Amino acid sequence: MPATTALRRSLAVTAALPLLALAACGYGSQAQDDTRQQVVAGAKKVDGLDSVRIGYFGNLTHATALVGRNEGLFQKELGGTQVKYATFNAGPSEIEALNSGSIDIGWIGPSPAINGFVKSGGKNLKIIGGSASGGVKLVVNPEKIKTLNDVKGKKIATPQLGNTQDVAFLNWIAGKGWKVDAESGQGDVSVVRTDNKITPDAYKSGSIDGAWVPEPTASKLVAEGAKVLLDEADLWPDKKFVITNIIVSQSFLKEHPKAVEAVLRASVKTNAWINANPDKAKASANAQLEVDSGKELPADVLDPAWESIHITDDPLAASLRTEAEHAVKAGLLDQPDLNGIYDLAPLNKVLAAEGKPTVDDAGLGAQ
User: Fold this and answer.
1) Three-state SS string across 171-208, please?
2) How far are the Cα atoms of 137, 215, 351 from residue 268, in angstroms, in the given order?
3) Inter-axis angle of helices 164-175 and 110-119, nearest 10
């Protein structure tokens, strides 16, 4: 198989990469309180289901899933149906789990959602809601790079070839009029594909001069002396672009619409609580991440990372369409047919019942 073909087929296989966990403290310390995770006594099973299986990453950008789990909000809405959880480190494994029926609903980034939809001919998943926007920055060594023009000729890391941040950086480079071979990363800028887990060490060693990365990797680099040169949000209308979506198996959506609505209702209520109580929500996400990974983030990383992520019900569908266009322009993706990737009818039903404005699918709705 030609390298370019293989690359195109593998585009968007990663979501925002794994983020380190938050430090345990405060309000959310009840993460292991089993009473929050138990089925509601005497409650009926939703759609007659014994369980609903939810997947997510142990990432701060998946705060809705983290907080909703820790606070027992998913279980509350599903009543007598047990919520079961699975955590993932990368988009392909979560898509595989959805395809195999190991999970029913998942929180995931835009690139693997696009990839999963396209590779299945539009048959395996639907995006049914939003979760988070923002949280991606270009951070650099201030001794080597003082202005955006200084990025030319430097070595800048992205998480993975063809992932969401890689495509965004390549698009930004093209906008500057610079030339880079998308596959090799070589050209007027050296694009160095580096796992987020080792990017801070690469920065400290001097093997990279900066990185276009999601949080909290960006804030980890800042803690090592890097400076934020550009917040990707500044490049988008209203400073909003999708970083996390909610997806569902199409078969599960068709067979168990009430269960899907219950999960979306829990998501909407969780997002409202997060936005109304940011400090408590940060501590709650903190506690769940500690349970999931046993790791911590110091305050100087956690606080700015949390500040830069916007929690939202809106899937920001227009930005997903634009991200796909950027990948095509970079030569990393054949023109995809995204018609039908969204089914926002269940979410809009929930939003209307909660007295909230409905959201738009940018013309990519259910067919």
Assistant:
1) HHHHHCCCCECCCCCCECCEEEECCCCCHHHHHHHCCC
2) 27, 23, 7
3) 100
Residues of the chain with CATH 3.40.190.10: 3-133+241-353, 136-239
Q: Output the CATH code of domain 136-239.
A: 3.40.190.10
Each residue's pLDDT tens digit, 192-235: 999 888 999 999 999 999 999 988 899 999 999 999 999 999 99
Alpha-carbon torsion 235, 237, 242, 247, what sign?
negative
Compute the distance between CA of residue 213 and CA of residue 215 in angstroms, rounded to an integer.
Answer: 7
Single pTM value for the model: 0.83
Q: Please give the single-letter amino acid code of residue 153.
A: G
Domain made up of 3-133+241-353: CATH architecture = 3-Layer(aba) Sandwich (3.40)
Q: Which residue is it, tokens 């005497």?
A: 42
Closest listed residue to residue 327, CA positions, set 3, 4, 5, 12: 12
- pLDDT, one tens digit per residue, over 227-277 is 999 999 999 999 999 999 999 999 999 999 999 999 999 999 999 999 999
CA torsion sign, 350 to 355 to 356 to 359? positive
- Residue 331 per-residue DSSP state: T
Closest CA to 336 of 351, 348, 325: 325
